[in-house]
């Protein structure tokens, strides 16, 4: 047994102490300095993380933060009394309309439109009527899509919601049009994917109050995409977004310009009000997005810090929820 020692030790033997000093260069002073330096490095690392993510919030919320409540009061003029009166007056107008008075709209659904119109009951009623008329005519577009699309190279790469919000509380919808293969996903299913994504987003009170921003990436778009960029499809996009949906569209960013993008914009631009046109931004370089969004919330392909697996698989979840979305609406998320 000479020259060997048991595995269990209560103290370091002399040879190990000598080895630690000679091979690892450890002394009491160096040990203390090393611990202090490591603690400082860790502290600096967490401070940098805090600075990086300060001002943005995760997409998922369970309640409204204080700034959103204040914003709702100041910008949308919402108070508890105005909310009650708005719902009552909107229901009264709906009750007088024989075309839609058979629908028992949920209060949360009505609030989406009241907030969109800053409690202008007439404007909210008009848009709800447009929505019902369109949905009755094009009901199949509101059914959701097959779960088979949600594969690695499927719907989840085409349309996503980024996992962090902008500092102003807006969620960001990220659409990679070049990832859409019209040969595998027909244009009608692409429309369904877009519709269900936005309809489910509107159930989020933070989105209702702060609005939505979008990033449209045209990298990889080709003739097959150009073929479906018809006046009819562009007009449908306009009609839904501005005349039917309760969306507050704060900014639209276009990157990786292509012929498809140019033609789509030429077709869509005449329909858009000047207010919306001014919110559309075209970027010659993708890195220019960093002038509008914190790096911490942008994918790495745009110079940000988010890797692909950091992106939330929102469309799959939204597609499941969409199965319960009827004419009367769905409850808010919280």
The biggest beta sheet is recorded as: 5 strands, mixed
Strand order of the largest sheet: 1-2-3-4-5
- Rounded mean pLDDT is 90
What sequence of helices (H) and strands (E) makes up the elements?
A: HHHHHHHEEHHEHHEHHEH
The rounded distance between the terminal residues' Cα atoms is 70 Å
- Structural Rg: 27 Å
* Low-confidence runs of at least 5 consecutive residues: 49-54
User: What proportion strand?
Assistant: 5-15%
Tally of DSSP β-strands: 5
Shape: elongated
Tell me the number of helical segments per DSSP (H or I, 4 or more residues long).
Answer: 14
Helix percentage: 40-55%
Q: What is the SS-derived class? A: alpha/beta
What features would you describe in this structure?
Pfam families: CRAL_TRIO. GO terms for molecular function: phosphatidylinositol bisphosphate binding. The chain is an alpha/beta fold. The protein is built from 14 helices and five strands. The chain is elongated. Residues 49-54 have low confidence and may be disordered.
